[in-house]
Amino acid sequence: MFVRRTLPLLVSAVFGVALILQFFVPHPASKNFYNMMLDWLIIVSAFTYLIAVQSTVELHFTKIKRKVEGWQYSIIVLIALFVTAFLGVFGGAFMPTTLWMKIFPSVKPSDTTPLMYTYLYMQMPMQSTIFSLLAFYMASAAFRSFRARSFDATLLLITAGIVTLGRVPLGEFIYKGLPDVVEWILKYPNMAAQRGILIGVQLGIIATSIKIILGIEGKYLGGGK
Amino acid sequence: MAISTNFWIWIAALLTLAIYSFLYKDNPFYKFAEYLLVGISIGYGISIYWHNTIITKVYNPLVYDKNFLVLIPLLLGLLMFSRFFKNVSYLSRIPIAFVVGAGTGLSVPSSFEFLFKQIYATMPLKLDIGSLIIVVGVISTLVYFFFSLEHKGFVGKVSKVGITFIMVAFGAAFGYTIMARVSLFIGRIQFLLSDWLGIIK
């Protein structure tokens, strides 16, 4: 029971309190502790990423094994994953590794790595294309859902229209003062609501954090004993 | 300008077209590009974690600086894998507790700092319409999200003002998102017509 539940709660409480206290200690040792904790968090998070990778690989292997509909696409995921990871780990991320330069003597340290080629010419174009696809779907979704059925919906529709038009030359062509209207909307009513939401979010974060540190909130440990 | 002869530009262009083919309907070309993106993104993440975390923050300090303290997060990270062994799977709760605990410890002071900055910025420095709109907007938005009191009478009226402000903010956010997507679309079309086909300069 101690290792299963009490120890994890103690770990989160100790590190939580320690990191809150270090904020109020203006000593270099406190700053070093803060930097060390950040590094530790990054290291442990890297392993959580590996767990996510394992889960994805297992899912696609199972799909291939059971020959579920569209299993051929799972082969593409796995090949792309392993080839990119192999190129990245052995070829280097932002500059070629010494091992890569030994295998390919023509490669210079200033050369683009194979990982960067896949990033610049495959991942980035595909990502931005998928996001740009949303321009079409957002327009049609807005048409269906934003019909001015109530005062609030009308307000949302009008604001979205003004902000969209006010940011392009066409808006200025229709009414010269439109960019100023957009500026005013963003600076006052938009800022007020955003600030209200952000204050609410921060209060929520503080309340949940304190509950976690005190051990009141323990759902992150999962179910079971 | 002539059509590109660069192999990588062709790859990027064909993948862009494969994704845009979804505008007609779901098809194997789109699916191929979609699954390829998933695989490449995960592989890219592994590579970045390998170089920026495992090599930079674990291997180098351990081997060159003899900093044995990094063995602690390394051990915590390895404990994550205990979840694959049923009889010791509970050990994976320790690294999770560390991440959650340290994360909350980091977020409490920064949240307070952020909170006070926002409250300070809301206080009117001079009496004008803008400052009044901000004070009324912030308070009414907070009242709208305050569920400990029933939204009736005065509270109901204030929360009604709050939802008006929220709708304006959502409308502005929506307008901005549309513009961002359209700008991405223009970027892709420019890439196809300029970098790939060489039709425009």
Would you mind describing this structure in some detail?
Chain A is mainly α and 225 residues long. Among the domains of chain A are: 1-68; 146-225, no CATH class. Chain A is built from 8 helices and no strands. In chain A, helix 2 (28-66) packs antiparallel against helix 3. Chain A is extended. The model of chain A has no long low-confidence stretch (mean pLDDT 92). Chain B has a domain at 126-200. In chain B, helix 1 crosses helix 2 (28-63) and helix 3 crosses helix 4. Chain B is extended. The N and C termini of chain B lie close together (7 Å). The model of chain B has no long low-confidence stretch (mean pLDDT 94). The interface between A and B is large, with 124 and 113 residues. Chain A: Keywords: Membrane, Transmembrane, Transmembrane helix. Chain A: The chain crosses the membrane at residues 7-25, 37-61, 73-100, 120-143, 195-216. Chain B: The chain crosses the membrane at residues 6-23, 35-55, 67-85, 90-109, 129-149, 161-186. Chain B: Keywords: Membrane, Transmembrane, Transmembrane helix.
Q: Would you spell out the secondary-structure blueprint of this structure?
A:
The complex is a heterodimer of chains A (225) and B (201).
Chain A: H1 2-23, H2 28-66, H3 71-91, H4 98-103, H5 114-145, H6 151-166, H7 169-174, H8 178-213
Helix pairs in contact in A: 2-3, 3-5, 6-8
Chain B: H1 7-20, H2 28-63, H3 71-79, H4 93-122, H5 129-144, H6 153-196
Keywords (chain B): Membrane, Transmembrane, Transmembrane helix
Transmembrane segments (chain B): 6-23, 35-55, 67-85, 90-109, 129-149, 161-186
Keywords (chain A): Membrane, Transmembrane, Transmembrane helix
Short summary:
The mean pLDDT of chain A is 92. With 225 residues, chain A is mostly helical. Chain A has eight helices and no strands.
